[in-house]
Design goal:
Neurolysin, domain 3, 3-stranded mixed β-sheet, mainly alpha
Length: about 500
């Protein structure tokens, strides 16, 4: 590599292209890949990831990045590219190759053990594999380096710049506000039954309706597509090739509707990066929490709002005249926002969801610090479920074994879900200040003004700034639970006829 910015840019583009092909292979693995291709795809992904890692840790890249960091004539975007890629490379080179291989092997074994443990509903079958994962993740955290808090080093991989010292008070305050709110809703005189029990919603009709929703929010179907998967996700190769998936359940259309809107939020972010940033490190969200804020904003704040359904519900009733016969807008809207503490995180409503996240965060801290014997994890999980949500898992599969993240070794990932919820409320409030008639626009089905506001203030910024710095720039303040709690109290006090 030459010590020139064009040479450095070429390496950035090569790394981004490899990430794109890895993303495409991963997306295909979850959608269209034949069942017998598992081993072949594992080898292909391993080869591609190995190539990416080799190019990332190349000593010549380190030399050119060090040179570029000292150049006074780089513009702001070029300096940001150097900063972001240097951070990624610094973390990669600190982890010994032997540890990378040991983690990959441990994750493979942990996934197999987790699946068997779920099948037999016995955490003990997963425990030895989890012990190995934790041992290696602690070693990895120490290799990355930290200032006395191991979890910070792991959190950095998903939420750069966030620290336990900053995060814990926010999530603890959120927990302490949500627990009485959930109890107050449960005691409210107004009850919300399960609207969809015994009804049937044709799968193909649901599919067509989800495509209409994608168009309405401004997702470009010529620069992306939607397919089906068991677990909805967003992937792809490039801002002009963004892949979404959704899940169809013929007994409940909310799964497809809100999965599509949620993934569309992610997809709009991916499609919204500035063209000048394509194939560079700046075509990325500065954190998983900020990325999640876009999906939660569209799914919950907009998609579960009454104004949204004032426009779209007549079309939904026309699509399912039999299934929704006698169901008026108020009944549907209330059902779409039904609060009911659940055992399963992915099925949780927006009031109880963050309690699932806080529970996992608290246990992760104990585990990374080696302050909770693994044999006691199911009991610790169940005790928090009772205390926070008032429900008790009947077995480990519906409790401590429900998420795949620990089998993947993804310690530090869960908090980003809660951060996404908090950021979403703050961003939407800022959008309302900038667009005073936003609710009326949504009521008319005019959603592109919100997409364009987010595109300008969030999407096109890419990774120019750290996440919380960008949030502060857009909203006037950083991470806070104030806007989120105000949003929940206003919405659910009205829905349940009680003061929260």
């Amino acid at each position: 590599m030459e010590r020139t910015f064009p040479s450095l840019l070429a390496r950035m583009q090569e790394l981004k292209d490899l990430q794109g092909v890895i993303g495409l292979a991963t997306w295909d693995q979850e959608t269209y890949m034949p069942a017998k291709a598992d081993d072949a795809r594992a080898h292909q992904l391993s080869t591609l990831q190995g190539l990416h890692h080799e190019r990332l840790v190349d000593p010549r890249l380190g030399e050119v990045l060090a040179w570029a960091a000292m150049q006074p004539d780089l513009d702001a975007d070029q300096r940001a590219m150097v900063r972001v890629l240097s951070h990624e490379r610094d973390r990669a080179v600190r982890v010994p190759h032997a540890l990378v291989k040991a983690l990959a092997e441990a994750q493979s074994r942990a996934l197999a053990a987790w699946r068997q443990a779920r099948k037999e509903k016995r955490f003990a079958l997963f425990q030895p594999a989890l012990a190995r994962i934790l041992e290696l993740r602690r070693e990895q955290a120490d290799a990355y380096g930290h200032e006395g808090e191991r979890y910070d080093a792991l959190l950095e991989g998903y939420e750069p710049g966030m620290r336990v010292e900053r995060l814990t008070p926010v999530l603890t305050a959120l927990r302490d506000a949500l627990i009485p709110m959930v109890a107050a809703i449960a005691a409210a005189p107004r009850k919300v039954p399960d609207l969809f029990e015994g009804r049937h919603f044709d799968g193909e009709a649901q599919w067509r309706f989800t495509l209409r929703l994608l168009e309405a929010v401004g997702f470009d179907l010529e620069a992306g597509r939607q397919d089906r998967s068991i677990h909805p996700f967003t992937g792809g190769t490039h801002p002009l090739d963004v892949r979404l998936t959704t899940r169809i359940d013929e007994s409940n259309p909310l799964n497809a509707l809100f999965s599509t809107i949620h993934e569309a939020g992610h997809g709009l972010y991916e499609q919204g990066f500035a063209e000048a940033h394509y194939r560079t490190p700046l075509a990325a969200a500065p954190s998983m929490g900020l990325h999640e804020s876009q999906s939660r904003l569209w799914e919950n704040v907009v998609g579960r709002g009454r104004a949204f359904w004032e426009h779209f519900y007549p079309s939904l009733r026309e699509t399912f005249p039999q299934a929704l016969a006698g169901v008026d807008l108020d009944t549907f809207h209330t059902a779409a926002n039904r609060v009911s503490p659940s055992l399963i995180r992915t099925e949780a409503d927006e009031v109880t969801y963050n309690l699932h996240i806080v529970l996992r965060y608290e246990l992760e801290l104990l585990l990374i610090h080696d302050r909770l014997p693994l044999a006691d994890v199911p009991a610790a999980w169940n005790e928090r479920m009772r205390r926070y949500l008032g429900v008790t898992p009947p077995d480990d599969t519906l409790g401590v074994l429900q998420d795949i993240h620990w089998a993947w070794g993804e310690f530090g990932y869960f908090p980003t879900y809660a951060l996404g919820n908090l950021y979403s409320a703050s961003l939407y409030r800022a959008a309302e200040r900038a667009l005073p008639d936003l609710t009326e626009r949504i009521r008319r089905g005019e959603l592109l003004s919100l997409r364009d506001w987010l595109r300008t203030h969030v999407h096109r910024q890419g990774f120019r700034l750290p996440a919380e710095e960008l949030i502060h720039q857009v909203t006037g303040r950083g991470l806070t639970d104030v806007d989120f709690l105000q949003y929940l109290r206003g919405k659910y006090s009205a829905l349940y006829g009680t003061s929260l």
